Amino acid sequence: MTGALTCKPYLHLPDEQKGVLFPILRRFDRIVVAANMGGTFFADEPELQDIEFVKLPPVPEKSYPLKFDEFASRAFAEGAEVIVTVGGDGVASYAATAIIRQGLDMGILGIPAGTANAGPIVRADHSEDSLDWSRRLDSIEVSCAGKVLGYGFNDVILGKSFLGTLDGRLVNLSAGAMAQKGEALELADPDITVAGKDFSVVLNGQAQEVPSVGDVKQICVSTLHQDRLMCRAIFGGLLESTGMEAPAAIALLDKNVTDARPGTWSKKMFRRTAHLCFGAGDTVEIEGLADGVCVIIDGNPFVLEDRRITVRCVPDSVKVFGIGG
Q: Which class is 2-132 in CATH?
């Protein structure tokens, strides 16, 4: 069995993570790695000496999504059936997007080593038999200006900040600075009004009556049928999705719910949220976003070319290993 491996550029993994990762890697006869996609140093691990490591040339320096497209394509050409990611939800989302966008017959398995590790792909409960069971997950496809930006499996968020780690601290990072310059810039105040004066939501070509929640500080879009509900920013009283194929929802929030400041977590007050449920076959256009709003797909920030995005729920979009059916 051939696999592909991509990870953060770690020089050392804690024994706890090795104890999860190494038994899985030993299930493979061959592992495809690329110099600038992480993972090449695993070839020197004494515990993995029986595995043939196929070292690909470095992937051309492009945007992260295009680098993952290239890596997945090359790995598939080498016979890889699974991409193993060592990182957070963002790394897993990039890899899964590469598989979906190119229609590759590959699956994905995520080892947690990121900031939140909250999504359904990245799991801490893997064992060596994780490659024996899998299921396909729904995703949110995000497009802007006629181009697919990526696929989200946990939360697609519209705002100006995302959670990240800086100097060992959980902080609010500027989505714009990271997307445009690759710069980890901490934000003292991540709040922003995301809905402009001409804000609207259009479902299947029909404008929706948008209820007022006051000043919209954040918009979240998420699938609803996954393997766990914890750490899902979208959840509220979404019973209307019962019985829908590939249910998903949009939430308009009067608070930034992905805020690294501890003082914002324990306010004892009512919050205002409005939900719109949609499902497979539906197309939702979110228009009239405020200037400076970015879209963050499972922790990966993108700058928008215009002030609107289009989202769809794609059922069974990618095979994820280690998740029972």
A: alpha beta
